[in-house]
Design brief:
Elements: H1 6-19, H2 28-37, H3 56-67, H4 76-96, E1 101-102, E2 105-106, H5 108-112, H6 114-133, H7 142-169, H8 177-202, H9 209-233, H10 236-239, H11 245-248, H12 254-260, H13 263-273, H14 280-292, H15 295-316, H16 323-335
Helix pairs in contact: 1-4, 2-6, 3-4, 3-8, 3-16, 4-6, 4-7, 4-8, 7-8, 8-9, 9-15, 12-15, 13-14, 15-16
The structure holds geranylgeranyl diphosphate.
Length: 339
């Protein structure tokens, strides 16, 4: 049975739009800046059909709810909260990484300055919490809502830890794969794990919630590894990111860590990463070194291993048809994606 995400995407969009309503005319621009980041408006706050996010986390949440026997509509507040947490983290990440472009458009801080950028991100995080509290309106028991809030808080703490490690590791050529795995587990997989866990919680999965969480976590690990590949070899127009942006900012991604471990690449890559002036030509040289030692194949293979782990966890969850198939096809699309 082929997976048509449109009904879920439409419902996610409607939930997001209903929560992102400005409380007064005076603060409408604050909400418009959030709408800009989400791809609904252009820089002059006119309706836009800009490239928006893939909505992976809310999709995982709704499908996990359905797969565990629940009505996926009951997980919509959690799905919206997850997408808003994700987007809040992107707005702040763009500031911290000094990134001028996201999804092919200038980032919020780049258009309206740092002070607004920080405040827009913070507002989105608060709205995410308000979105989650809407679970109470759907007759979900208060104890379940409290558990959901605890999961989100735990995840936010993980995101901060992962971001800390990501920043701290920049240009640190001694970082090993184990440390990298801890970093991406916190900055990326934790939110995927929370997405499937919250969906399963809303769907009443009981003891099988841990299997859903594991499914999301493993998939998140695979997702980040593919993201590392796209951060170097992705097509600029498709990813909406500047070319080889991860290398430009000397990120310690899995491709770089693997290549540093290869004797015939180590010296050249160290010399390039240690340069003060990393020009386009140096970046092309670094990419050529990575290609020479088969980095891409290695990282793709590691991502496939995590995908397999994810599918195993999903089998253990005894997910219901057809949502089980939908989750499997979503997992496959995550690993095969080009943006
Ligand atoms: C929680 C207080 C608090 C701070 C957050 C900024 C930060 C600390 C964490 C950043 C975490 C981060 C940006 C991880 C990267 C994850 C990643 C690869 C995102 C891209 O996800 P996609 O491709 O994005 O799903 P789209 O554009 O589809 O929405």
């Amino acid at each position: 049975m082929s997976f048509d995400p449109q009904p879920y995407l439409d419902a996610i969009e409607a939930e997001l739009r209903s929560i992102l309503c400005a409380p007064s005319e005076a603060v409408a621009p604050l909400y418009d800046m959030m709408a800009y980041h989400l791809g609904w408006l252009d820089q002059r706050f006119r309706p836009a059909a800009a490239a928006h996010g893939k909505r992976l986390r809310p999709l995982l949440c709704l499908l996990s709810c359905e797969a565990s026997g629940g009505d996926w509509h009951h997980a919509l507040p959690a799905a919206a909260a997850l997408e808003l947490v994700h987007n809040f983290s992107l707005i702040h990440d763009d500031i911290e990484d000094n990134s001028p472009i996201r999804r092919g458009r200038p980032t919020v801080w780049n258009v309206w300055g740092l002070a607004h950028g920080i405040n827009v991100g913070d507002t989105m995080l608060v709205v995410a919490r308000q979105a989650l509290a809407r679970l109470c309106d759907l007759s979900i028991p208060a104890s379940t809502v409290l558990t959901a809030m605890d999961i989100v808080d735990h995840t936010l703490s993980k995101l901060c830890q992962g971001q800390y490690l990501d920043i701290a590791y920049e240009g640190q050529l001694g970082v090993r794969e184990e440390a990298y795995l801890e970093m991406i587990g916190a900055k990326t997989a934790a939110l995927f794990a929370a997405s499937t866990q919250l969906g399963a919680l809303a769907g009443g999965a009981g003891e099988r919630i841990t299997c859903y969480r594991e499914f999301g976590w493993q998939l998140g690990m695979a997702f980040q590894m593919v993201d590392d590949i796209l951060g170097i070899w992705g097509d600029v127009d498709t990813t909406g990111k500047p070319v080889a942006s991860d290398i430009r900012s000397r990120k310690m991604t899995l491709p770089v860590i693997f290549a540093l471990g290869a004797s015939d690449a180590h010296e050249q890559l160290v010399a390039l990463y240690q340069r003060e002036d990393l020009t386009d030509d140096h970046i092309s040289q670094a990419v050529a070194v990575l290609e020479r030692v088969g980095v891409r194949e290695y990282v793709q293979q590691r991502a496939s291993q995590y995908e397999a782990g994810a599918l195993e966890a999903l089998s253990a969850a005894a997910a219901l048809f057809p949502a089980d198939q939908y989750l499997r096809s979503l997992a496959a699309s995550v690993v095969a994606r080009e943006r």
